[in-house]
Amino acid sequence: MDFDDKQTQTCSVCGGDSQGQGERRSHHDDKTIKELVTRMNRIEGQIRGIKGMIERHVYCDDILNQISSAQSALDGASRLLLEKHMKSCVKERLQGNDDQVVDEVLKTIFRMMR
């Protein structure tokens, strides 16, 4: 298929191409972005701490507890982003009669449940 023949859908909110995942953009408010970045920075620090624990030969159970904590923090960030995604991106696409977004969200949720 030639690049010019590729059918694309444009997001009514951001004007981005909805075919290639790398080309789509979210449209969350600054408060949400700040909260997500803060969470990611905290998680990044946790991961660095876990790496240091491994390098220092800290007791395995202590490391596993820290890994569990980091996973919980990532799950919390995922839930927040999913909520914001549903209330903004998905809502807008449904209002634009893009029912394909339902399959996309279901696929994402099922992946998160693994």
From TrEMBL:
InterPro entries: Metal_Tscrpt_repr, Metal_Tscrpt_repr_sf. Residues 22-31 have a biased composition (Basic and acidic residues). One of its GO terms (molecular function) is metal ion binding. One of its GO terms (biological process) is negative regulation of DNA-templated transcription. Residues 1-31 are annotated as: Disordered. PANTHER family: COPPER-SENSING TRANSCRIPTIONAL REPRESSOR RICR, TRANSCRIPTIONAL REPRESSOR FRMR-RELATED. This is Copper-sensing transcriptional repressor CsoR. It comes from Desulfosporosinus meridiei (strain ATCC BAA-275 / DSM 13257 / KCTC 12902 / NCIMB 13706 / S10).
